[in-house]
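Below is how a single chain appears once it has passed through the pipeline. First comes the sequence as given, then the structure the pipeline wrote out for it. We keep one example in the README because the format questions we get most often are answered faster by looking than by reading.
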Amino acid sequence: MKLKQLFSGNFEIVAILDGEVCPAERFLLDGEKSTEASRLGLMQMLSEVAEVGLQKVPQSWVHEADKTLKIYEFIKGPLRLFFFKGKNGQIAVCTTGVRKSGDKADNAAVKKAAKLRNDYYEALKNETLTTVIENET
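Resulting structure:
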């Protein structure tokens, strides 16, 4: 499994690659004009989390999307960026994002994030997890 480093500081924010494409990064960079401020806000939040960790950011930034599956979401305006907690300083492993349309977390996005979480931990166990750092490519 390949990961892409999105932000680093005292901690690392990474995202899972799907081939050569990074769905979480694409979600953050591309989108409707109406969500531009929220996407920029999410990127600022991720940068802050990389510096101070999840425990030191406002609780309003992060929500537990599914307690049983251990899937979380960063929240900014109508946007949700799903993630799970990783290992070895990778405190947030981003999977995908959605525009929120109802009261509950997007079930398909949560299930996808849970599958990727299982794949991540399997790759970690098998020592097949690699991280791509933009400056190195």
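The mean pLDDT is 92.

See the next section for the split statistics.
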